[in-house]
């Protein structure tokens, strides 16, 4: 591109480049309103990124090219940070972490693919791909325009002067941009990598020390259980919000009243409380790791360290005390060799069930089918007491396609009948889950109707049942200010098995009323082992 003898074409090209790059960096999605005056403001980040290009332009074309390329790459990283800073707090109630969260890109793709209607997902995938390519292409062209323009010293000198004036004024008068500088955020992310590595090393050392301390102490005997089966049900997205907020509590009371009546008619009693989860709105595996290890697992780096550690988990302790241990993970659709850490004698993942029906949103199969399938394989004539941990998934977001409840369990079979049953549909969208409350509550109603009838019909042996959530639903459903707490219900026909929980402050019934702060989820295992020693 040649600008001729006059400088105004180059000046226009530079202005167009700055405007284009500012709009690309300022644009936010999702946002309300989607378009605002903020988009048109010159971005200080863009001005700062142009400074090294301006200096490189003084050294010739070759230097300019090698500076333009990494500058463009940094710009794309800044765009990613801006997206993360908007989306992650909106759903997970925590800050975006570039080092950890960038590893979730494929998981995000899989979540959107499995939870959305096929047509909607194809439109979303096509739109996202085109938008990404467009941002990459347009921003690259804009950086090239800017680089070409800055080769003209009649443009370069005024630009440096204007930039110095703008940045100097911002420093002198303390002007704050509408959004924090993305370059500052990038610096924070880079500095945090070293901090996270150090924290990871400290966490590994703490795991080793905890493992050594526990192994040096008295071995857990679980004699207090008296050989009773233990069933642990972890319900996806079952959070405190359903009891704490009136807009949810009224409908949830109906669900729990019905569940409680079914239990009472079949001789069960229940006590309830809350536990503080290590995660919010997602990342269920952190709650699983925390609950079963007795150590708080706050992110994927710590989860990886836990899975490589020698810390004895819950199932291994049950196994040493004569229990058959069974892990039921119908939502795990990929090979998961790291799961061997949890020490189960038998693992059931999605592919083990040979399910012949349709998927329901993110869940590859309904939880009622899962409970029935496991019952027929594990509970018909068990030779030993059983500890079974179920990860129930029919209440997983997006809540848009839910299974119907099957009254006659004997007809469930291999799941083929679900092909002839109409799913329950809700018009929910990821971008607007504030309106998904009804769908969310219906998914929990399905879970408790399924659990109530399963316990009433099929649990005949002396059994301790523990039902809890893994985390709160995402922030769009809860609103800000909710603690990271989940309900926990302990149920049995044997009052002796409930006594330790009552002594720990659990209240009778299915409506926990304990005020915050709540005991954290990592305290459950050690308390349980102590109570049933």
Question: What report would you give on this structure?
Answer:
This protein is an alpha/beta fold and 533 residues long. The chain is 51% helix and 10% strand. It is built from 18 helices and 10 strands. Strands 4-3-5-1-8-9-2-10 form an 8-stranded mixed beta sheet, with helices on both faces. α1 crosses α2, α1 (8-26) runs antiparallel to α6 and α10 (246-265) runs parallel beside α15 (437-458). The longest helix is centred in the middle third of the chain and has 35 residues, at 182-216. The termini are far apart. The relative contact order is 0.13. Residues 1-5 have low confidence and may be disordered.
Radius of gyration: 28 Å
Query: How many helices?
Result: 18
**Arrangement of strands in the largest sheet:** 4-3-5-1-8-9-2-10
User: What are the segments in which pLDDT stays under 50 over at least 5 consecutive residues?
Assistant: 1-5
Order of helices and strands: HHHHHHHHEHHEHHHEEHEEEHEHEHEH
Beta fraction of the residues? 5-15%
Report the strand count: 10
Average pLDDT taken over every residue: 91
By secondary-structure content and strand pairing, the structural class works out as alpha/beta
Task: Give the CA-CA distance, first to last residue.
Answer: 80 Å
Q: What's the oligomerization state?
A: single chain
Biggest sheet: strands, sense, closure? 8 strands, mixed
Q: Based on CA inertia axes, which overall geometry fits?
A: elongated
- Helix percent reads 40-55%
């Amino acid at each position: 591109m040649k600008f001729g003898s006059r400088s105004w074409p180059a000046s226009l090209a530079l202005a167009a480049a700055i405007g284009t790059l500012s709009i690309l960096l300022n644009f936010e999605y999702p946002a309300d309103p989607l378009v605002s005056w903020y988009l048109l403001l010159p971005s200080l980040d863009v001005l700062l990124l142009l400074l090294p290009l301006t200096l490189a332009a003084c050294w010739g074309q070759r230097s300019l090219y090698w500076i333009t390329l990494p500058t463009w790459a940094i710009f794309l990283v800044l765009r990613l940070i801006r997206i993360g800073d908007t989306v992650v707090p909106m759903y997970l109630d925590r800050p975006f972490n570039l080092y950890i969260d960038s590893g979730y890109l494929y998981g995000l793709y899989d979540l959107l693919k499995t939870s959305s209607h096929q047509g909607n997902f194809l439109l979303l995938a096509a739109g996202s791909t085109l938008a990404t390519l467009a941002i990459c292409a347009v921003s690259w062209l804009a950086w090239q325009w800017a680089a070409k323009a800055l080769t003209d010293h009649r443009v370069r000198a005024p630009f440096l002067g204007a930039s110095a004036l703008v940045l100097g004024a911002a420093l002198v008068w303390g002007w704050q941009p509408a959004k924090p500088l993305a370059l500052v955020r990038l610096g924070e992310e880079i500095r945090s990598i070293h901090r996270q590595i150090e924290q990871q090393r400290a966490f590994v050392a703490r795991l080793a020390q905890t493992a050594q301390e526990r192994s040096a102490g008295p071995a857990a005997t679980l004699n207090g259980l008296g050989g009773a089966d233990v069933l642990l049900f972890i319900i996806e997205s079952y959070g405190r919000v359903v009891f704490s907020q009136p807009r949810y509590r009224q409908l949830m009371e109906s669900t729990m009243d019905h569940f409680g009546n079914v239990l009472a008619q079949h001789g069960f009693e229940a006590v309830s409380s809350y536990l503080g989860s290590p995660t919010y709105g997602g990342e269920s595996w952190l709650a699983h790791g925390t609950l079963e290890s007795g150590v708080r697992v706050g992110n994927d780096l710590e989860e990886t360290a836990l899975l490589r550690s020698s810390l004895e988990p819950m199932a291994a302790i049950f196994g040493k005390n004569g229990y058959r241990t069974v892990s039921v993970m119908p939502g795990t659709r990929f090979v998961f060799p790291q799961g061997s850490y949890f020490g189960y004698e038998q693992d059931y993942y999605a592919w083990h069930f040979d399910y012949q029906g349709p998927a329901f949103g993110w869940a590859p199969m309904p939880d009622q089918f899962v409970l029935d399938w496991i019952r027929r394989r594990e509970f018909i004539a068990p030779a030993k007491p059983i500890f079974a941990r179920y990860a129930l998934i029919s209440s997983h977001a997006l809540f848009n396609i839910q299974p119907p409840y099957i009254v006659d369990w004997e007809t469930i079979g291999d799941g083929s009948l679900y092909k002839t049953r109409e799913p329950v549909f809700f018009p929910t969208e990821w971008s607007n889950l504030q309106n998904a409350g009804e769908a969310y509550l219906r998914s929990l109603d399905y879970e408790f109707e399924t659990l109530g009838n399963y316990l009433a019909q099929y649990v005949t042996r002396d059994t301790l049942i523990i039902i809890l959530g893994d985390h709160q639903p995402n922030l769009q459903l809860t609103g800000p200010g909710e603690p990271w707490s989940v309900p926990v219900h302990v149920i049995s026909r044997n009052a002796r098995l409930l006594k330790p929980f009552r002594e720990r402050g659990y209240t009778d019934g299915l409506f926990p009323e304990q005020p915050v702060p709540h005991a954290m989820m990592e305290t459950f295992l050690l308390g349980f082992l102590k109570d049933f020693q």
